[in-house]
Amino acid sequence: MNDDSSPAPGPAAARPADRAHRAPRPGLSPDPDGLLEVHGVTVRFGGLTALDDVSFTAPGRQVTGVIGPNGAGKTTLLNVLCGFVRPDQGGLNFGGTELGRLRPHQLAGLGITRTLQGVGLFRRLSVLENVMVGAQGQARAGFWSALGGLPASDRDERRLRARAREALDRVGAADLAGARPDQLAYGLRKRVALARALAAQPRLLLLDEPAGGLSETEIGGLRELISSLSAETSVVLVEHRMDLVMAVCDTVVVLDFGRVIAQGTPDDVQANPAVTIAYLGVEDSGE
After folding, report:
1. C-alpha of 123 from chain center
2. Which of 98, 106, 163, 244 gives 135 a disulfide partner, CB atoms 3.0 to 4.6 angstroms apart?
3. So what's the pLDDT on residue 207?
4. 3: which residues sit within 8 A by CB, 6+ positions away?
5. What's the burial of 84, exposed, middle or buried (CB within 10 Å: 0-12/13-18/19+)?
6. How many CB atoms lie within 10 A of CB 154?
7. Would you say 133 and 196 are in contact if contact means Cβ atoms under 8 Å apart?
8. Region 261-266 average pLDDT
9. Which residues contact 263 (CB under 8 A, 6 or more apart)?
10. What confidence tens digit (pLDDT) does each residue in 47-74 have?
11. In what order do the strands lie in the sheet with 89-94?
12. Once rounded to an integer, what is the mean pLDDT over residues 186-213?
């Protein structure tokens, strides 16, 4: 299963100096209403087992990272979490609701939102209108009615526009509202895509390689943003950049060939010999 395409640096890529600059946690206790539980999830595609008995929990108001070598099953796991793929075995529970048989639009109704590895923006809509799409679940008349100015939609349009502007401001892109996506550099389009997800006011935010294609400066801003988001929502982060993962995550889950081989704090995971073997293919001699 080719679910990851770019090379993944090993866990040693996150140096102690990187972790020393980690922003202090908000000091909030985990939110039981935002708890994600994955238990015994197995996914098969023909004769290939993409996920094999995967189990972990992602507490509310915390950042849970999912890492692993190329082909480990990370994107398949995200597709299960957002309803694009149904597990052959096992189940999912979020905030007390079983998710395994729900369709993607039903999961969105529960406050589960995902970003993509790319950006997936509508080229002919403005940045503001693209972000409004993310908040359409909050519109009584529907997004397209609000956008088209149909009767009884003015109030919805004002609400959607206000929420979209708030989301753009949150990611530092408020001044881009009137631009078209194809006028923007890739890093700015990634900000807009994240703002679209935030406009839905998610209870669970699934981030699929948000650092891909960003500059070092942009990654620094992303690190601060993800850390701040955990004060109000559950975050599950799939990412190749180990420095980012180790800086923002409270818990890290490591996949290899579709199985969980380690999970714990960033320090625990980095010290786990099984993780070193999975990334580097060599035994850790301890020397």
Report:
1. 23
2. 163
3. 95
4. 50, 71, 72, 73, 74, 75, 76
5. middle
6. 12
7. yes
8. 94
9. 56, 251, 252, 253, 254, 269
10. 899 999 999 999 999 999 999 998 899 9
11. 48-60, 31-45, 89-94, 97-98
12. 92
Residues in the chain: 287
Q: In this predicted structure, what is the pLDDT of residue 185? A: 92
Q: Could you tell me the domains of the chain?
A: 41-111+202-280 (3.40.50.300), 123-196 (no CATH)
* Inter-residue contact 164 to 134 (CB < 8 Å): yes
Token output for 33:
């209403």
